Structure formats: C-alpha cells, structure tokens
Amino acid sequence: MNWPTYRAFYMWLRNYDVFIRLFWSIAPGFIIEPVVLLVALGFGFGSFIGDINGQPYMEFIIPGVIASYAMTSATFECTYNVFFRMDFRKTYDSILATPMNISDVVTGEVLWGATRSIITACIILLVAALFGIIHSPLALLAPVFAVLEGIMFASMGVFFASIVPSVYSFNYYFTLFIGPMTFFSGAFFPVSSFPETVQVISNIVPLTPAVSLIRGAVSGDFAGVNVVISLLAVIGVSAAFYIATLFSMKRRVME
Prior knowledge:
single chain; 255 residues; mainly alpha; 11 helices; membrane; transmembrane; Nod_factor_ABC_transporter; ABC-type transporter activity; ABC2_TM_bact-type
C-alpha cells in the first residue's frame, strides 16, 4: 500500500475551492442552523431547566453545540460528498490518473473534514462570545479540540463511505449512530442524568470525550475532565479508522 504524500494537500485544496465557490449555498447548514439551535435551546429550554452543575443552561450547551456540529460537519462532508465524488461523479478516477495515490485522496478528504469542523466550531464560538457567555481565554482551545474531533469523525465517515453499497445505506449510519450519539454524549444533558446502563453506553461513544474536552475549554475548568484519557480516546479512534480507511478505500477503488 502506498502511504500518503504531500500531494494530499491538493485533494484538500480541491475541496476548499469547491467550498468557496458554493459558500452561499451551503452556509445556512453550518452557520444559521447551529445558531438557531443554540438560541432555541439556550433561551427556550434554559428558561425551564435552570442551572446545570452551577451553570446556566445556555452556557452548559455551548460546548455540546460546538462538538455536535463539528461532528456533523465532518460527517456529512466525508460520507455523502465522498460517496458522490467516488461513485457518481467519478472524481476519484480522474484524480488517480495523476501522480496522486488513493492514500493522498483519503488523507486530503480527512483533512478537509477536519477543516469543516474547525470552521463550524469557530463560528459557534464567535456567536457565543457575542452573546457574552464566553468567560475564559481557554475557550480558544475549543477549535483545537474540534480539529482532533473532526479528524476522528472524518476518518469514520470516509471509512463508512468506502464500504457501503449505495448512498441509501447512510441512513443506517446517521439514524443508528450519529443521531443517538448526539443526545447520549453529554452534549445537551449531563451523562450522570442517564440510568447507569445508558451511562456505560455514553462513556464509550466517540463523541463523549470530544464533548468533555470542549466543555473544559469553554468553561475554563478541566477539573471534571480526564484530559489525557479523552485525548487518547479521540486520537486512538482517529488512528484506527484512518488506517482502516486507507485499506478499505484502496480495495473499493480497485473493484
């Protein structure tokens, strides 16, 4: 198997150019939607729920919104878009006729997915700052953690795209995995509020350590966060799926 080279940057650049050309068509999905969710949950549910762990509900959910939308940004980019480039538009066939290899393509896709995550994280963080609910300079670490999270979910997304038989198969991925994980990761409710059996599930889903890291950064308090374990979990899952994707995508394009 060929390992990725510097040419992976050109795959990233190709996706960046498309993103810039289509910016105003796709902006509502990663700018308006998370802001609406933040306002609706923060001011809507927040008026009924009150404080959680000593924080107003609006402040509690900001890290969850950042983490969940960083996840979905990378996931949508690296599932549907990757599949369409690979199977429908035959973009990969054209790219692989150049000196680039499939590992360059996979790496460029993963890096672009992570880029989408950090763009989304920065926008939500900026909106939260404008609301006056960011109180710690450590919040600047949130986009850094969002990049790591983006690499993780981008790797998972490209892997799934490389093994599904049709675009409709993504319904299983989003309905059975991405959707439930959003609610069971502690993004919008404390994990401790779930029954013990559900807590076990919550503690092993990939989004949970990302939420914990971003929550610690935004609040400026890592006291309740095992930073080392959370980082190792995110990096470990990222590495496992990235390596698996290099093999699965090579097998897919050779079929």
